Amino acid sequence: MTTIDTLQLSGLALAFSLNIGPDVQAQQLTALDVLAPIGASYDQLGIIGNIPFDTLVGNDVVWDYDWIEVDPTAADITTQIIPLTDAPDADLYPGADRVERVISGPANETVTDRFYDVVEGAVSELGSVGPVLSYVYDDPRLVLDLPLQFQDTVRDEYCFWSDGLGTQYHFCGHNFVSFDQVGTLILPGGTYPGARHITSWRSSLETTEPATDSSYTIQQQWYVAGTPFPVLDVSLFISSESGLVYASGRVLREAAFTNIKERGVPTMSVFPNPASNEVIVRRTTSEESLLQIQTTDGRLLFAERIPAQTLEHRVGLDHFPNALYVVQMISSTTTTTCLLQKVQ
Fold it and tell me: Which pLDDT score is estimated for 20?
C-alpha cells in the first residue's frame, strides 16, 4: 500500500524501462479503452486523507487501495462528453471535434469545457474555457497517440497562453505519457484484474518576461476493461520555485462501480478495429435494432435496420474518411455504444 504521508521526490521518477513478458507486449490501449463517446457521463468523488500514488513498475502489479476514503456528502465532479454544438465557445477552436465538460461545485456552478482534436488516433488538446482560468495552446498538445502499446511513451513539446483574473501568462513545457503497468486494482467498489495504468508527466516553465516559476505535474490514471474513462485519477503538482507539493485524487462514485460489474459482457463489438475496408458488427442481443455510425461531433453518416436474430452484420467503409467514429446499436430496450477507428 503506497501513500503520500511523506513525499520523497526521488522515488517518483518515471520508469520507462520495464521488465515485461511476451504476453504483456501484445497488450495495447485503443480509442475504445480511453475515449468515452459523445453522450457519456460519469461522476467522481474527491479522495480525502491519504492519496494513493504508485511507484511500482512492470506487469502483474497489485494496487491495493481498498483503504481509499471519499467524502460521500461532497458534490460530484461530473465529466460529460458533449457535442461540439453544445459548447458556447466552440468557435474559438475550429479544429476541435471533441469536447469534455467538467462540472463541479456545491451547486454545479463551475463549468469548464476542454477542446480536443482526434485524428487517426492522435488525441491533441487545443485549449480550455472556464469561469476562472482559460488557456489556449500555441500548437495542439499531443495527449495520446492510439493505439498505445504496453511500455510505449508519447512525447511532445508545447506552449500555451493562460488567461485568468485579467492577467495573461505564457508557459512552455514537455509532455510524456506512458502506458507502463498492467495489474489488479483493488478499490472500495471492487477488485478489477487486468487494470491498465497510464503515467503522465508534464513540465511547465513560465516564459512571460521575466520568467519566474517552473513546475511539473505527475498524473496517474487507471482504466478497466469496458470502461472508457479512468476509474481512479490522482496527481501531484510540484513547484520547483516555491517547493509547494499538492496531491489530489478522484475515484468513481460507488454507483458507477456497480454499473461496471452489472454490465458484464458487452452487447456489441466491432471487428476489426481499427478497420479499413469493412467492419463486422457483432452483438449478443437478438432484438430488431437500428445501427448508426456518427462522427465524433454528432453527424449521422450511416443508419440501417438490423433484423431480429441477426447477430453479425457487415458494413463497408470505403466511403468513410480516416477518422474516429461512434457506433450505436439502438433497440427498444437498450442503446449500446462503442468507438471505431477507420484507417487506410
Answer: 34
Cα–Cα separations (whole angstroms), residue 168 to 94, 111, 128, 176, 183: 22, 21, 14, 25, 43
pLDDT digits (tens, 9 = 90+) for 141-153: 999 998 888 889 9
Specify the long-range contacts of residues 230-234, CB closer than 8 Å, at least 24 apart: 231/185, 231/187, 231/192, 231/195, 231/256, 231/257, 231/260, 232/52, 232/65, 232/185, 232/187, 233/44, 234/47, 234/51, 234/52, 234/53
109 compared with 298, residue with greater pLDDT: 109
- The C-alpha cell at 121 is 488516433
For residues 184-198, b (16+ Cβ closer than 10 Å) or e, as one string? ebbbebeebeebbbb
Residue whose entry in the numeric block shows the C-alpha cell 467492419: 279
pTM attached to this predicted model: 0.72
* Of residues 93 and 253, more confidently modeled: 93
Contacts of 39 (CB under 8 A, 6+ apart): 81, 337
Q: Are 178 and 16 in contact (CB under 8 A)?
A: yes
CA distance 222 to 98: 22
